[in-house]
Amino acid sequence: LEGAPVLVLQGASGNATWDRDQDVAAAVIGEVEGLLRKAQPERHFQLWCQARLVALPAPQASPAVPWPLRRAFGNAVVLLRESAAIETRLRIGPLTLVGIPGEPVGELGLRMRPDVLVGLSDGYVGYIETPEHWDAGAGEAVRTWFGPGLAQALGLWSGPP
Fold it and tell me: Exposed site from 9, 20, 87, 108, fewest CB < 10 Å?
């Protein structure tokens, strides 16, 4: 793309797959160019940024991990991971980007609307799954490190985990 700066972000989209013979870049560029043609220029807008340190919940292995291995899993995560993560909110005019250090599932991104959830931002705490999927062992639950409390700690889910 020529002209204005372009920012590419990893959002809460889940496992995106495509036909490897297809030129995905050309399709994305075509879509972006169409959006840019429709966009109205802004002369003045506010720019705002906030970062907060979030205490991570205790590591919790998925119910899919055999029971005798769950404690060993939790101990390994405690030894290898930080005890806190950074959440960043960036407002550019009317757009708010919420950066979290993990891979959120699509449902969490939908719940954040109109804000845009951006994954893999400033660290990595693994997959972030909804509490319902975690309890059922569905979706990315088997790949989570911090169980259902991580979505709540990051402000992506309200109510009990």
Answer: 20
Which strands make up the sheet holding 116-118, listed edge to edge? 47-55, 84-92, 95-99, 116-118
Please confirm whether the linkage preceding 160 is cis (ω < 30° from 0).
no
Q: Are 100 and 118 in contact (CB under 8 A)?
A: yes
Alpha-carbon gap, residue 28 to 34, rounded angstroms? 10
CA distance 95 to 86: 20
Q: How many residues does the chain have?
A: 161
Q: How far apart are CA 50 and CA 86, in angstroms?
A: 10
Q: Which amino acid is at 3?
A: G
Report CA Rg, the chain. Answer: 18
Token pair 């979030």 is found at 54
How many whole angstroms separate alpha carbon 100 and alpha carbon 157?
Answer: 13
pLDDT digits (tens, 9 = 90+) for 8-54: 665 555 556 667 788 888 888 888 889 888 988 778 888 999 999 99
Amino acid, res. 72: A
